[in-house]
Amino acid sequence: MTDKCQLSDLLPNLPIFRRFFTNLPRSAAEVSVKQATVLFTDIECVTKTIVKVIHGPRLNTSSLTAEMLQNVIPDIISTDSAKVITAKEEVVKLCQDWLSDNFEELDWVRIKDLQLRNILDSRRQAAQEASERKCLACPNFLKHVRFHT
Predict the structure, then answer these.
(1) Predicted TM-score of the model (pTM)
(2) Residue 121 main-chain phi, psi, to 5 deg
């Protein structure tokens, strides 16, 4: 992955657009891990996939179910390089394909706040309209997006 902005970064996180996204890492060597502060306004999508990062001796998996262990990534912030590589390999497993269920947006059905419901409904309608556009079939779609931004 790269810190440079890609043209596909301008696209919304909708299944129909994900095929245009920059390729995901295919090996642990391509995964970069760093602690960062993300502003709330910079969050585009909250996925239904939860990844737990556990470090050091606190990792006691004996009381965890198989489902709870599914997305646990231990030692990603370890000083032991072998453990970090293993943890990065777990990240690569989660990031196999943009079209996987791991990138599906969280289901907001439990949100009852009327103002937020209206925003979510407007987003859903805009997403539906965008997904039905014929321009998505164009092989030069990303180039055309560049011309209009």
Answers:
(1) 0.66
(2) -65, -40
